[in-house]
Amino acid sequence: MNQQSIKNSSRANNRVCIPFKPIEGYYLVVIGSPVWAGKSTPAIRKFMVTNDFKESDVSLFVTSDGNKPEKSLGNMKAAVIAKRIVSEYGFIRPMREQEQSAQQVKTWCDEISKSTKS
Ligand SMILES: Cc1cc2nc3c(=O)[nH]c(=O)nc-3n(C[C@H](O)[C@H](O)[C@H](O)COP(=O)(O)O)c2cc1C
Questions:
Q1: Which atom of ligand 1 is nearest to the CA of 63?
Q2: What gap in Å lies between CA 90 and CA 92, rounded to an integer?
Q3: Which ranges constitute the DSSP H helices of 1-97?
Q4: By C-alpha distance, which of 29, 42, 35 is closest to 90?
Q5: Is the CB of 67 within 6 Å of ligand 1?
Q6: What is the pLDDT of residues 13-50, one digit of tens each?
């Protein structure tokens, strides 16, 4: 692990380093975050802005307690440099209606799968 990947994998508070594999080479990267104060969490934001997704399709999702995930998804979209954003989804209170959430995930995965084939 080189210095850059250690830096990239630092958690937002910079106290804990969790190494992860370099992101290059994946044809699809799915990035998700809970909404905190209308935005993605600091650690996910850091992951988005310190990695280069120019060679990858990216799908974005958030989980939230509110009914308007568009703003936080918009912020995430603006933070990512991707070849293409193929799909985005807001899961609202996913743990409350778990069967419904599972169905939404399945439908969304099918949508991503179709989009990445086109
Ligand atoms: C610190 C904090 C801030 C949050 N801010 C928001 C918010 O601004 N809007 C919102 O819809 N949900 C907000 N939530 C709710 C989380 O987005 C929601 O609990 C999470 O996405 C669902 O995942 P969980 O089932 O693991 O809690 C917040 C939660 C926490 C802990």
A1: 21
A2: 6
A3: 3-8, 42-50, 70-79
A4: 35
A5: no
A6: 455 555 567 788 899 999 999 999 999 999 999 999 99
pTM summary value = 0.84
Whether 63 is in the pocket of ligand 1, judged by its Cβ within 6 Å, is: yes
Rounded CA separation 51/5 (Å): 10
User: Letter for the amino acid at 31?
Assistant: I
Q: Is the CB–ligand 1 distance for residue 95 below 6 Å? A: yes
Confirm or reject: Cβ of 36 under 6 Å from ligand 1. yes
Structural domain boundaries of the chain?
Answer: 23-117
CA of 96 to the centre of ligand 1 (A): 13
Would you tell me how many other CB atoms lie within 10 Å of the CB of residue 97? 13
Of the candidate CATH numbers 1.10.1710.10, 3.10.129.10, 3.40.50.360, 1.10.1040.50, the domain formed by 23-117 belongs to 3.40.50.360
Decide: 72 and 35 in contact? Cβ < 8 Å. Answer: yes
